[in-house]
Each structure stands twice: as C-alpha cells, then as structure tokens.
User: Which sequence fits this backbone?
C-alpha cells in the first residue's frame, strides 16, 4: 500500500471514515457514511464525498457504481493498515534492531505476549514453507 514513498497516517476525518467502513464490513454509500458520522459531529455530504474520493485515489478504499451513486468499501483491514504504518516507521530508521528493541521495551506485558506468540507462529510457518 505504501509503495516506495512514505506512508502518511490518516487525518482525523479520514480515520473516522475508515473506522465506519471497517465497522460496516461492507460497501457503504456516501450518505450512509455521513449518517454514521453525524452522531459525532455535523458534516457536509460533499466533504465526506471528497474525502472518500481521496481515499479511493490513494488506494485505501474501493468503490462500485450503484445506479448514480458510488458505494465504498475498505480496501485494507485495520490490521493491514497498522502493519503498514509500523513497517513504514521501521523503514525510516537506519537502526531497525534498535527501534524494534525500544518498541518491545515500551509495550505492555499483554502486547508483548501477543507479539511473542505471533513471532513464534510466523517462524514456524516459515520453517514449514522452507521444508516443502
């Protein structure tokens, strides 16, 4: 998703829109996204439409024409987006090992356990694939 250029985190409205799309887990019209966002703050239809169009051009959402209206859906999961941000942060340092070590020092014990299990699972999968 990030390609060779730096990944810019979502802005506040982009993040709110992506949250609504992730929560929905299905295509949503601009009107449905506006309605879902209205509980938090009033937003103009055209503002949300513009942000969705920008997210589409950036590759974060897909869209399909339904009559005369576009229906949008997240192109990546929350987890894929978070992983892309973490990978981009690592790519921005010349001391990857140091950055990873500092990250592990600063996460809480529960997250450290999750990370440990994820690493063990990933290594086991790589070993299985290498043994084929």
Assistant:
């Amino acid at each position: 998703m990030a390609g060779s250029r730096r990944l810019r985190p979502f802005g506040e409205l982009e993040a709110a829109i992506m949250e609504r799309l992730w929560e929905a887990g299905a295509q949503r019209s601009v009107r449905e996204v506006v309605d879902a966002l209205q509980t938090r703050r009033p937003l103009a239809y055209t503002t949300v439409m513009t942000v969705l169009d920008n997210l589409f051009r950036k590759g974060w959402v897909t869209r399909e024409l339904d009559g005369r209206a576009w229906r949008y859906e997240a192109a990546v999961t929350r987890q894929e987006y978070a992983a892309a941000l973490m990978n981009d942060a690592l790519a921005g340092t010349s001391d990857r090992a140091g950055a990873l070590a500092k990250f592990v020092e600063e996460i809480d014990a529960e997250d450290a356990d999750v990370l440990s299990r994820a690493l063990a699972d990933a290594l086991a999968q790589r070993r299985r694939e290498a043994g084929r």
